[in-house]
Amino acid sequence: MLANTNRFSRKDLPFNSKMKTSWNKNGFLIIDNFFTIKECKSVRSRVIKLIKEFNPETNRSIFDTKNQKHANDKYFLDSGDKIHFFFENKAFDSKGNLTNSIELLINKIGHALHDLDPVFNKFSHREDLHQIAKSIDIKSPKLIQSMYIFKQPRIGGEVAYHQDSTFLYTKPESTVGFWIALEEATVDNGCLRVAEGGHKGPLRELFVRKKDKVIMRTLNDTEFVKKTIPLEVKEGSLILLHGRLPHFSCENKSKKSRHAYSIHIIDGECEYPKENWLQRESMSLRGFID
Questions:
Q1: Residue 273 CA to chain centroid, in angstroms?
Q2: Who has the most CB within 10 Å: 54, 65, 95, 258?
Q3: Distance between CA atoms of 55 and 34, rounded to whole angstroms?
Q4: pLDDT tens column, 90-111
């Protein structure tokens, strides 16, 4: 675990000067025990129901950040205002059959759970999250996407080194990730790893949409630093991630899953270009308390 000077607890709230200093210096912030075990269980239980209602024969989109197989998949590109299911890279055998029960093969569910599902709506739209966003200078917090991430036992795929602003870009940049541990996250089961203070460097790439295709546009060829630190956290912990902070997670080769829920916000006072891959055609953006 990180030293106490690098993490906080819910009892330290409301957001204070020490938290703000840590956020500005490091580009991330950990608040342990932010959500209760009961709250975490409620969304895990809801996901089980959603999976049971999903027919895998209707779509078999694979999510893989290492080679971006999903990038030009219409199912993926249309998911900004829907609830869509994405499989692990190792979910199917050579004949296209599922290699295990479906609840152990889904990579993630995205990207509008926070608006379209009542349980996730309640979990996501909260006054305390709004106050945190305001405390880190987001003038008009708007939820742009949400993801339920499974990090499945033994096959949970690596999430490649990246910056969130690459995928959710605003002018000026304003993206912040709210990452919630729904189960304990450790080095063994693929916890987040971050380049501490790396948010002070440049934005390297933009993931841009050209009609029904997407490309990765290079902005700066500065390499990500190799030195990273693991963010091991208990169930219910909240991690804030600056949009420019380089981070990744390793493949989960353990027997234990690492479920997490991630919300990304932008400042509604900033421009959200139409070349962003994620577009919400059927609904407007809401804030934490809208």
A1: 20
A2: 258
A3: 34
A4: 888 888 888 888 999 999 999 9
